[in-house]
Records
---
Amino acid sequence: MVLSTDFVTGVLEALYAVQLALRDVWHALGLSGAVADQPAWPFAQRLAAERLLLEPGHARRVVITLACVAVAVVLLLFALVLAGLRRPRQPLHARRRRLWRHGLVAGAAALLVFAPWPNKALLWAPAVPTSLHRAPQAFSTQSIAQGQAVFTQHCAQCHGADARGEGPLASQLAQWPPNLAGGLLWKRLEGELFWRVRHGMRDARSGAQTMPGAPALSDQEIWSALDYLQARASGQMLRDMGAWERPVRLPASRLNCRYGGLRSSDSLRGQRLQLVLPSAGEQALPKEDPRWVTVVLGTPPMGAAHAAPECLAEDRALLPALALLLGVAPQEVPGHRLFVDRDGWLRARSVPGQAAWSEDDLICRSESAPAPPAAVAAAADAPPAQGVDGLLRRMDADRMRLVRAGYPH
């Protein structure tokens, strides 16, 4: 049996929801407390979704076992129903019901015995009280700016200014800090990263401290530092690989829109955005287009065709945040243009001096990206979409989903 990525993702979403429900019920019953203003995960282990996502054979065994358990539960429920019914007066009917009841119980037992139970070592992962915590604040320009200040003051001495783990004090630790400028952040749950920053880390064998904790930092400062590290790591991936390997949201910022006045960029979810960062020599803004909302960062060019753009981003923290996400210096940001999809993910980039958009500008794609629009259009005897039309069609068809430690978010 071959399991599709979408099916496995759906199973992981369901398992994640079950664990969240169990955590919340446990907390509501007063059996567990709260940590960082969220219900604590009360167990020493959690389901290891990262292994399910990476190992198809293991995922298949888990799915088959879950199906066997579900059918066994249904059979046992039918058996209980038969046992609770009023006894028939005729002995033959009573015997048949007894046989049915015993058969249902035997079938349920056989399913549980012969189910391909997965290896426990692969099914469970160590957990901490904040394992299922999620950042309570939005991924925003203000959070990134605050996180940069926190990281510079409290973390850079060990992790290095570039977060690669080679700070001036790194050699004094029992173990060199990990490289946080790559994909490591997405291989861990947000809540577990929070716990490591708060309480530090120790070597599993020797017990020696490999990373000191930060008890003096507030919860918000820790979450902000993680937002900053995510933004920096995204820019590093783009610089090294030419693409965002993991989905990146447009940081929430303040906009001044022609229709709606002052508002958050998150309020435009459901619409495509073209983010324009004019360069000094740019004479005109792109023409307005009903297919997207144009958001201009900073002051429009003097010769702009539209004196008042659809939306103007006046948030001064947006430019340095975008510089981190693009992996460039802040002075290199002007001249770029970015497309944001309807779900708020940054998807395409146009570099300074580029004439027009094309599908090649799509720098964030899902692992299960659909067939190119050209192939779909050809199958329908229609001319393939070119330029920005092809880019938009591909962007809409290829929906993004962030995965952390195997769990879809």
---
Amino acid sequence: MPYPQTPAPPHSYPGTAPYPTTGPISDHAGWGPGGASGGGFTAYDPIGALKEGWAKFSESPSTLMVPVLVVGIVQGVVWTIYYFVVIVALLAGVGATANADYETTNNVATGAAITFALGTALLIAATQASYAGLSKGGLDVADGRRPSMSEMYAGWSKGRVFGLALLLGLVAVLGTYLFYIPTILAAVAAQFAVLDMIAAGTGIFAAIKRSTLMVIAHPGPILVFDILAAIIAAVAALPCGLGLLIALPVLVVAQARTYRAFAAPAAQ
């Protein structure tokens, strides 16, 4: 069933085309793109987005729950193996430098730290890239479709998404040395970048720029949504993470709806 259409106000993001006069918007009566009015639609509502995420999830729970479970299991196994390898490597390094001089020990420690940082950044990038399929699924479900898991991982550039994830992974690793402030800022600014790469086909830096502009243009509702989403995820993680099987599908659809509300078409 197609979504109702309503006029939307012109958009002022630099480097993008204005909103079209008509286009698909949410069928939730509490919010629409950019605060569109008319036809019963009012300004974007973060709670309304979450309610719609729950409604879409309730219609077909397995559509996103199964991919969340599969991706979660794979990532859990990979991270467990990685940390096991790291521990073994650290023990081997300690044994190799037990009788070494200060300079040798320092060089080995520096090399190990750099290797660990790069390895962690790569694994973070792989993790985020694997979750990009869920973002694609969130967009499809929000638009009224029920994609298969293979469809979630089709039709978008894996290389671009991995490049973006690697860049953000490096920021996350380096941010640990600055009290995580760069990590938090990057996460907030680029929160819609993957969605934009999938939905609009933008490149890495264009997606980051467009996501940042969305956040800057609408900081209040977006940050309220982020806080609510973080609370939901934290509470859902309490029962050994089992609640995330429900929370994550709801949140990916709600985030897709949030993206749809504020994203302008990419410039051609």
